[in-house]
Amino acid sequence: MKYLVVGLGNIGPEYADTRHNIGFMVLDELVKQEKEKFYSMRHAYYAEVPYKGRMLHLIKPTTYMNLSGRALNHWMKELKIPVENVLVIVDDIALPLGTLRLKPKGSAAGHNGLKHIEATLGNNEYARLRFGVSDNYPKGRQVDYVLSGFDDDEKPELPALIDRSIEMIKSFATVGTELTMTRFNK
Question: In the predicted model, what is the mean pLDDT of residues 173-180?
Answer without folding.
Answer: 97
